[in-house]
Specification:
Pfam family, one: dTDP_sugar_isom
Structural class: mainly beta
Strand order of the largest sheet: 1-2-10-7-12-5
Function: Catalyzes the epimerization of the C3' and C5'positions of dTDP-6-deoxy-D-xylo-4-hexulose, forming dTDP-6-deoxy-L-lyxo-4-hexulose.
Pathway: Carbohydrate biosynthesis; dTDP-L-rhamnose biosynthesis
Order of helices and strands: EEEEHEEEEEEEEEHH
Catalytic activity: dTDP-4-dehydro-6-deoxy-alpha-D-glucose = dTDP-4-dehydro-beta-L-rhamnose
Shape: globular
Mean pLDDT: 95
Number of strands: 13
Enzyme class: isomerase
């Protein structure tokens, strides 16, 4: 497994495993504590694993947590997604930087998203399962959502949106969220 820094987002990493494929399918290590530790992350900091299933065109995000934030490892375990990370840490050298990834069940690549960054994705295949490893217990009162189509972010979503949650549909602009966070 190889870890690569993501230049657009300070402190973000892309973990690329080596799937072993044969006529049966493949086998792949998707998490390696030693590799995670080698880039300065605590592998024991992650306390919750979750998975979402989406159908083609579904968009989830852009989401982040207020307060101490939430760091996470995100991987598409089956299917394919267009994954987006936006740096919203005012003191970061990559503040407002954006990074885009195609994550898939074929490659099993994982993105480490530091606390204070917004995250979203769109399913590119008929079914896409996305796995999350999170460093804090979820607290819905800290959920923050930013409009997926905010012109300031100009995210190039690859497909028309077929479905999204009401919360995501009604999300405020980036400017509104940033103004609220300053208080």
């Amino acid at each position: 497994m190889k870890a690569t820094e993501v230049p657009e987002i300070a402190g973000a990493y892309l973990f690329e495993p080596t799937p072993y494929a044969d006529e049966r399918g493949f086998f792949c290590r998707t998490f390696d504590a030693d590799v995670v530790r080698s880039v300065g992350l605590d592998p024991h900091a992650f306390v919750q694993d979750s998975v979402s299933r989406s159908v083609r065109g579904v968009l989830r995000g852009l989401h982040l947590r207020s307060g101490a934030g939430e760091a996470k490892l995100v991987r598409c375990s089956s299917g394919q997604i267009f994954d987006v990370v936006v740096d919203l840490r005012p003191d970061s050298p990559t503040y407002l930087g954006r990074a885009f990834f195609e994550l898939s069940g074929e490659t099993q690549k994982t993105v480490y998203i530091p606390a204070g960054c917004a995250h979203g994705f769109q399913a590119l295949t008929e079914i896409a399962d996305t796995s999350y490893r999170i460093d804090r217990q979820h607290d819905p009162s800290e959920d923050v959502t930013i409009a997926f189509d905010d012109p300031e972010l100009a995210i190039p979503w690859p497909l028309p949106v077929t479905s999204m949650s009401q919360r995501d549909r009604e999300a405020p602009s980036l400017a509104e969220v940033l103004k609220h966070q300053e208080r």
